[in-house]
Amino acid sequence: MLDVRHGDGTYVRARSETEGVIVRRAALAPLLDVVTVRRGLEVEAARQAAERRTEQDLADLTALSRSPDAGSLDQRVERAVRFHSALVDASHNPLLSELYRAMTESIARGIQQATADPEPADVGTASHEDLLAAIAAHDPDAAAATAARHLAALITQIREQLQAR
């Protein structure tokens, strides 16, 4: 469950012992490690969502993809996390959803850090429409490829930030 603390961030409340362990472990991991694990989870989630999604899943994802770049950085990060969490849930794979939920706080931290810029930043939502289209079309290969591209851009951005330090 997400606990949004405006001005402080988005946090995850553990629902199980396993989730609690993963939350604590992910919080200690370097950002690049978190994002590469996220990529693995989301690419497979996108593939499964394209195969298994319901019309309600599609409606939820569509609603969450509206106005992705409006509002404060915290609001945009929160919307991005909700979109990606709904994507993972649309896989209808309970274990994948639990693993992803456990990492949500670290994922939100990663998005926040990667987009911490004085100018309003796109939190990676430009490709949400392409991802949504692939899922709607029941195209698992396109969904997985789109998710991989979406996160490759974030990984590149994080690597550039780390090299600049």
TrEMBL record:
Which one Pfam family would you cite for this protein? FCD
* UniProt cross-references to InterPro entries, sorted A to Z: GntR_C (IPR011711), TF_FadR/GntR_C (IPR008920)
GO molecular function terms noted in the UniProt entry? DNA binding
Record key words, sorted: DNA-binding, Transcription, Transcription regulation
Q: Which residues form the GntR C-terminal domain?
A: 33-153
Q: What is this protein called?
A: GntR C-terminal domain-containing protein
